[in-house]
């Protein structure tokens, strides 16, 4: 499937895979420029390097952290007035202290 290339997104002219950024594209190329040893990584090699293929078909240089905050850390954040609901704004003190 042909994708629209916008911004930093690109397609490798050698392996035809799609990359979300120049960084991701560069990361999938290895070898010396001068000795014609330069090549594309295969998919398993890209995964080994921490790259990730998104469901949209774009390779990215690294997978975004998807772990949720541990419950203990979340509990630490709740007393922060910036996260307390319902939100109350004191007209005499517009700056809300945030930790
Ligand atoms: Zn390639």
Mean pLDDT: 80
The set of bound ligands, ions and cofactors reads: zinc ion
Order of helices and strands: EEHEEHEEH
Major sheet characteristics: 2 strands, antiparallel
Radius of gyration: 22 Å
Helix/strand-derived category reads alpha+beta
Strand content: 5-15%
Percent of residues in helices comes to: 10-25%
Number of strands: 6
As laid out across the biggest beta sheet, the strand order is: 1-2
Question: How many angstroms separate the termini?
Answer: 48 Å
State the oligomer.
single chain
How many H/I helices? 3
Low-confidence region ranges? none
Structural shape: globular
Describe the structure.
The protein is α+β, with helices and mostly antiparallel strands and 99 residues long. Helices cover 19% and strands 12% of the residues. The relative contact order is 0.13. The structure holds zinc ion. Zinc ion is lined by residues 12, 14-15, 17, 28, 40.
């Amino acid at each position: 499937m042909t994708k629209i290339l916008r911004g930093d997104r690109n397609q490798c002219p050698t392996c035809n895979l799609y990359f979300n950024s120049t960084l991701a594209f560069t990361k999938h190329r290895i070898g010396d420029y001068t000795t014609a040893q330069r090549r594309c990584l295969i998919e398993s090699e890209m995964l080994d390097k921490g790259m990730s293929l998104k469901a949209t078909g774009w390779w990215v240089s690294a997978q975004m952290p998807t772990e949720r905050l541990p419950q203990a850390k979340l509990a630490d954040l709740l007393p922060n007035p910036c996260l307390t609901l319902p939100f109350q704004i004191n007209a005499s003190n517009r700056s809300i202290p945030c930790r």
